[in-house]
Amino acid sequence: MTETQSTRTEPIAYDVVVLGAGPVGENVADRTRAAGLTTAVVESELVGGECSYWACMPSKALLRPVIARADARRTPGLSRSVQGPLDVAAVLAHRDSYTSHWKDDGQVRWLEGIGADLHRGHGRLTGPRTVTVTGPDGGRRVLTARHAVALCTGSRAQLPDLPGLAEVRPWTSREATSSRSVPGRLVVVGGGVVAAEMATAWQALGSRVTVLVRGSGLLSRMEPFAGELVAEALTEAGADIRTGTSVKSVTRENGTVLVVTDGGDRIEADEILFATGRAPRTDDIGLETVGLRPGVWLGVDESLRVSGYDWLYAVGDINYRALLTHQGKYQARIAGAAIVARAAGEPVDAEDWGAHTATADHAAVPQVVFTDPEVAAVGLSLAEAEQEGHRVRAVDVDLSTVAGAGLYAEGYKGRARMVVDLDDEILRGVTFVGPGVGELLHSATVAVAAEVPVGRLWHAVPSYPTISEVWLRLLEAYRDA
Questions:
Q1: I want to staple 451 with a disulfide (CB 3.0 to 4.6 A). Which of 51, 242, 386, 426 is the partner?
Q2: pLDDT by position in tens, the chain (length 481)
Q3: What pTM did the predictor assign?
């Protein structure tokens, strides 16, 4: 049931208290409630969290029309019909619909439906197994947890330490996904996923985009060709991408942003987006009251329990294992199952790939970057596999050689790579870059997570003519090398 906030002197006892009602907190609550444990969920903003209102959902709603138009322009018989600009008002309305207009009524009903109690307000640990919630009206109530407190507070955008930056009113990922209008000129600082996706979206919606990348290219944590192909496409679309470039200063006068780079370049813009990393939301949740340092990422064991604590869990972004919504939800399922087992006095399955072990965080993390072209990757890159000491070989295929790719889009450009462990004859990682490749990723995730032998993959026959036939081309390239 949903609780109204008021001062209540006596503590309210639960089996589990979850701090944060984003997808991660919701999934922890779902697992514990399904097992019959009484569960409280505390949220200071909107139930549904960052993903629902400022990240996954609005960003993909902005990008979907962009990608659909790009695909149509590469399709004979359609290309001439889609040469005009996007209907910006319709795109933004589509985005607003997917965020439920930044109202969380539906998510609240879902929490009520599973039987969790929602406490709105700012929650802080105030001792072992204890959370104090300060509500919007200033009233306080104390919640205690018989078995577990799960910290699921996520992360926030990290801004650089530049003098006067606050006065500039820069965009973070939140403003970039929720803006009500298209800036005429947009500077994007950063080269990661947020930077690449938002540059793609706003360039297509009519902004003149300049991307400033401190490193040598986009998407530096992925295979090098991924960032190269995305940068090439962005440049062809009209974006100006400058690598090896840092921001020295930024000011705003009369509505215009002036950026000065370390190389002395001066760039004027209407808005500037800093997509320069994330910081944990652990600075004001009372960690110091239980002997932990506030404002840092929290170390956890494989069941997501905070190191050294038998009752405290840190699930999702705040443990820095994998800053992805789907991976946080996976962790939530693991943590929820572990909490339930320990509450019942049952043994915890601590084996790799066990019911209470988040092994995939290390071996099989999937990610899709919704740019044009898309990037889809799981597991280790070639460089990461070599750094971990595996004896591996990279097998590359030009996706334009696959019949299904040519049918999908005229002039299809893309690339695929699988990283093969030569000792175990399994895949350590797979990367696809090209239109529509996001839908290929789960097959790769299964292959990597299940450690399917390369010899067995020969018997997983891809349908013809689909882009998934790239699997056959990859296996042939491995055999013939």
A1: 426
A2: 444 455 566 999 999 999 999 999 999 999 999 999 999 999 999 999 999 999 999 999 999 999 999 999 999 999 888 888 999 999 999 999 999 999 999 999 999 999 999 999 999 999 999 999 999 999 999 999 999 999 999 999 999 999 999 999 999 999 999 999 999 999 999 999 999 999 999 999 999 999 999 999 999 999 999 999 999 999 999 999 999 999 999 999 999 999 999 999 999 999 999 999 999 999 999 999 999 999 999 999 999 999 999 999 999 999 999 999 999 999 999 999 999 999 999 999 999 999 999 999 999 999 999 999 999 999 999 999 999 999 999 999 999 999 999 999 999 999 999 999 999 999 999 999 999 999 999 999 999 999 999 999 999 999 999 999 999 999 999 999 8
A3: 0.95
Q: Which fold has domain 2-48+104-156+280-360?
A: FAD/NAD(P)-binding domain (3.50.50)
277 has binding-site annotation? yes
From 175, 205, 271, select the one nearest 64 (Cα to Cα).
205
Asked if 136 and 121 touch (Cβ cutoff 8 Å), the reply is: yes
Domains 165-276 and 373-480 share a fold: no
Listed by start position, the domains of the chain span: 2-48+104-156+280-360, 165-276, 373-480
Q: How far apart are the first and last CA of the chain?
A: 62
Is 194 annotated as belonging to a binding site? Answer: yes
CB atoms within 10 A of CB 337: 22
Half-sphere exposure of 422 (CA within 13 A, CB side): 12
**How far apart are alpha carbons 111 and 109 in whole angstroms?**
5
**Please, what CATH class does the domain formed by 373-480 belong to?**
alpha beta
166 annotated binding-site participant? no
- How far apart CA 439 and CA 466 sit, in angstroms, is 11
290 is an annotated ligand-binding site residue: no
Query: Hey, which CATH number is domain 165-276, 3.60.15.10, 3.40.50.970, 3.10.129.10, 3.50.50.60?
Result: 3.50.50.60
- Beta 140-151 vs 155-157: how paired, if at all? unpaired
**Does the annotation list 154 as a binding residue?**
yes
Instruction: Check the annotation: does 236 bind a ligand.
Output: no
Tell me: is residue 195 an annotated ligand-binding position.
yes
The answer to whether the annotation marks 413 as part of a ligand binding site is: no
Say if residue 60 carries a ligand binding annotation. yes
